[in-house]
Amino acid sequence: MKIVNIGLIGFGTIGAGVVKVLKKKTTTLQKKRGIKLQLKYVCDQDISTSRGISVDKKILTTDVEKVLNDPNIDIVIELIGGIHPAKEFILKAIKNKKHVVTANKALLAEHGGEIFDAAAKNNVEIYFEASVGGAIPIIKSLREGLVANQVQNIFGIINGTSNYILSQMSLKGCDFKTALREAQDRGYAEKDPRLDINGMDSAHKIAILTKLCFSKKVDFKNIYVEGIDEVGLQDIKYADDLGYCIKLLAIAKKSGDEFEIRVHPTLLPKKHLLSSVNGVFNAIFINSDFAGDMLLYGQGAGQLPTASAVVSDLLEIANKIDNPNSISFSNMDREVPLRKMRSIDNVETRYYLRFSALDEPGVLSKIAQILGKQNISIYSVIQKGRRQAQAVSIVMMIHEAKEKNLRRALAQLDKLPIIKRKTIAIRVERG
């Protein structure tokens, strides 16, 4: 039986999950694949704190060089996250002819080109199923299952923390701060949740999916990113009245020879498949030329779902080690820089607008006049209740408009004495 030696760097939550899965499923995996995955090193700065699983002390180490330089290690798993020193560890492992499995979406989004080039040069594999969608096999589906398809659009709910917060606001009627606090209490959100709620985590993931779908290298700083922290309970309720729900969407679209890549809160029709994705679950909706529409759904985070994806990658690489003539899917596509990326200013979409305006005659006509000067037409208006000489919410749905025109109009409107707070603007997708 072929024995494949593994070195694990990072013995945190996910690393401990990988050890659990390997210990529990070793016999099953051997029977299924005829390969033994043998954990030779578990490396972390802290090897004394209990992780809830027994590990032979002989394989525990704080010396990462043991993992990177041992000639008997076949695969290195990187689970420390972040850019540095993870990048240096991975590049050294590759230089030493070791295959790599990682869940590091930030590193791949910002430095993936360099890492994949190094892997190709050294004829080793780099697998990263756990970097997007946790247990959802989105990477494998795009890399292999849809290889004959031209993907046109991707809409992804790919951050469980933000989705949980928006779901709680919708289902329980609580405000943003209450929903965030509950997410933290349940362990769904970090103490510092900024990367989740500001959209950056989703942006890293959509950059990876864009590379897979379109073989295009994305300059990460050109991805438009907007978080959910300005979405209020009022917006959730008004969207519901209008037949929509609000989700943090990661979007990649191909329009002719141009691409749109963006992350922001979005109104989706309730009938859309993504609208029913609640809690910490993730889902990716894909539209392609031959396969049509499809939805991949599942647990997008958590110890064991993510560990499951890591072990799946280990088995795929182990199989390639055992069958060296098998086709490499991980490094087969060469990145081409994405040159025609549509800026957010030139994106055209429908919008939901919520004004906080004084309740007095002529307010609607003033708003409509400024919108009209920017070629923006109103589809519908909602105002519930009246409070003379006080601010009330006026909600508008507008037809397709260019982003830069809308921003010009809102800049003028928010300066008017009749507008008492910054106007909330949320893009609308029909799906």
Number of helices: 13
Largest sheet: 10 strands, mixed
The total of beta strands comes to: 18
Cα-atom radius of gyration: 24 Å
CATH superfamily membership of the largest domain, which one?
A: NAD(P)-binding Rossmann-like Domain
CATH topology of the largest domain, which one? Rossmann fold
Portion in beta strands = 25-35%
Describe the structure.
With 431 residues, this protein is an alpha/beta fold. The protein has three domains: 2-134 and 303-337, Rossmann fold (3-Layer(aba) Sandwich), CATH 3.40.50; 138-299, Dihydrodipicolinate Reductase, domain 2 (2-Layer Sandwich), CATH 3.30.360; 345-428, Alpha-Beta Plaits (2-Layer Sandwich), CATH 3.30.70.260. 36% of the residues lie in helices and 27% in strands. It has helices spanning 13-33, 64-69, 86-95, 105-121, 138-145, 160-172, 176-185, 194-197, 200-214, 233-241, 303-322, 363-373, 403-413, and strands at residues 2-9, 35-43, 60-61, 75-78, 99-102, 126-127, 151-157, 216-217, 224-225, 244-255, 258-269, 281-288, 292-299, 336-337, 348-358, 378-382, 391-402, 424-428. The strands form three sheets. Strands 7, 9, 10, 11, 12, 13, 15, 16, 17 and 18 form a ten-stranded mixed beta sheet that branches. The longest helix has 21 residues, at 13-33. The protein is elongated. The model has no long low-confidence stretch (mean pLDDT 94).
